Amino acid sequence: PGGGPPPPPPQTLGVPGEDLPKTTYRLIEPEQYRDRRVLVIGGGDSAIEAACSLADAAAADVTIAYRSAAFTRAKQRNRERVQSAAAAGRVRLLFESTVTAIELDQVRLNHSGRTVVLPNDTVIVNAGGVLPTPFLNSLGVAVERRFGTAL
Fold first, then answer.
1. How far apart are CA 29 and CA 14, in angstroms?
2. What is the number of other CB atoms lying within 10 angstroms of the CB of residue 124?
3. What string of pLDDT tens digits covers the 151 residues of the chain?
4. Please, are residues 7 and 128 in contact by the beta-carbon 8 Å criterion?
5. What single-letter DSSP state applies at residue 89?
6. Would you give the distance in Å from CA 132 to the centre of its chain?
7. What is the DSSP letter of 30?
8. Concatenated DSSP letters of 28-76
9. 66, 95 in Cβ contact below 8 A?
10. Which distant-in-sequence residues (6+ apart) come within 8 Å of 92 by Cβ?
11. Can you give the pTM of this predicted structure?
């Protein structure tokens, strides 16, 4: 009784420490992160909505790390919402950033070519899903790719 196929498994980072219990791949209840230092990874609608929900509902210390220079894939209203939260100091934006290691009480990132270490309690990875492209191709389903993601 689900209503369609299950979503694809989440895109993982493949970095040391990603298997720590503090890492999750979706936000369910923002309130459980009250007063926590949270890093949200990703630049799409899910990541932006998670970060803004955390800042609004949980008063969390929120940072978004995104590998690109801007939120080009997100809806305009979400881009405006996160820019407003950033301007108000409720969310920090780290563009051109990739996580290199997740540790018990901090996260290491490469940010524009230099190492940044953030004190951290929780990592939420919203980097998209992994489609079963080889399986789909074996069934004769063509998968068109744009911006490194399958449509």
1. 25
2. 23
3. 556 666 655 677 889 999 999 999 988 889 999 989 999 999 999 999 999 999 988 677 999 999 999 998 899 999 999 999 999 999 999 999 999 999 999 999 999 899 999 999 999 999 754 444 455 566 676 656 554 444 4
4. no
5. T
6. 20
7. G
8. S-GGGGTT-EEEEE--SHHHHHHHHHHHHHS--EEEEEESSSS--SS-H
9. yes
10. 62, 63, 64, 86
11. 0.80
pLDDT of residue 7: 60
Separation between Cα atoms, residue 24 and residue 35, nearest integer Å = 17
Token digits of residue 91: 């969310």
Token digits of residue 41: 């990874």
- The secondary structure element, H or E, covering residue 55 is helix 45-57
Instruction: Give residue for tokens 């008063």.
Output: 59
In the block, tokens 């369609």 appear at: 4
Q: At what angle do helices 76-87 and 45-57 cross, to 10 degrees?
A: 40
- Pairing mode of beta strands 23-24, 122-125: parallel
